[in-house]
Here is the input.
Amino acid sequence: MINESDLVKGVRVEWKSQAGGRWLKKRGIIVAHVPKREPIQVSLLEGEAPRVHGILCSNVVDRYLIKLESRGTKTTKFKTTHYYVPVASVVRKGRVIADEPSADSKVDPMLDFET
Here is the structure.
């Protein structure tokens, strides 16, 4: 079992998420712990076009604000920062990922998702 004190700002984490009938393993870096009944501070959001996916204030459970950064594409040319707010109980300390996934990797290089 992971010690909650290991999950602090700057730690790489992973969690599983379901959408559209598919489960994805997502990986990112903790920006903040969000206690229940506390809204996310907008000042924590960085990037040229930050996008938040998830509930911004939960009355029931603690959550983490986790940052994932895309690398841009040929058409966009800029990085988009995505923020997720998963329930704290599903977040696990992740393994270190190389900056550039290998050709045989199943990790989406845009969002660091494993499909």
DSSP finds no helices and eight strands in the chain. The mean pLDDT is 75.
